[in-house]
Amino acid sequence: MTMKKYISEIGMILMLMTKVILGEGTTGAQFLSIGIGARACAMGQAYGAIADDPSGIYWNPAGLSAVTSSQVMFCQNFWLLDMTHQYLAGVLPYHGGAFGLSAYYSSSGDIPKIEDFIKIGEYSAYDAAVSLAFARSLNSQIGYGLSAKYIAQKIDTENGSTFAFDIGLIYDFRRDNSLKIALAIQNIGPGVKFIDEKDKLPLNIKLSSAYLKENYALGIGLDREIDSDVIFGLGGEYVIKKTLALRAGYNTAHSYSLGFGICWQKFDLSYCFAPNKDLDASHRLSLVYGR
User: Which of 40, 60, 241, 285 is least crowded, fewest Cβ atoms below 10 Å from its Cβ?
Assistant: First the structure.
């Protein structure tokens, strides 16, 4: 089977799975679809089968089953004029598994309030989510994970909140953490309601694979979100003398991405530049302690 045919068939499977689980429809809480972490985003967001740092709480909670040391992560995304997006998370390994806790917050900045073509003031909007995750290895090849999250949104004086779950699986073909395939289903929940209107959450089915060696990593991923087409991502990383990581990727929803990482003792600082097809480019910074 050719790679093109393989990707096409997997895409069809993802579309069918999404329709079976929740059907089509317009979604709310779109901030849940914003990629987390400079490393992951520089690699074209093809990260679901890697996910071996605190950003795994977002990408695939099963990835935390491979975490062997306590880690803390902070991410800052500079995006769309005054809009910002922050992520703070920690992971604690525990008896063949790991616990994770994360919080992310997105702010619009000040938005002009217009009435009859006249500016009468300003308002703001924010989105926030707090997630608690657990992952465990069933054996040397299979890991699973679950994340529960509370979601809150505010636009001007209106508020909405809800809850959701993510589930994930990772399978290691070679028992040495080098060739993996992963499945994650994100944002399973009842939707979020503003005033009298309720929107579905952006349910996403993520299928990904990764090939990992000591000084390089390759990732490939397919995402199918409920109200969008299948998204294909591809990315890679090359590490020089365990100190400097060079990264690049491509994602059909956003465009290409470039980035780098600098490792020093237990610190890992990463940067990602990602232009957007329709919107402003984003600049992401991530700092991980404990890797």
Answer: 241
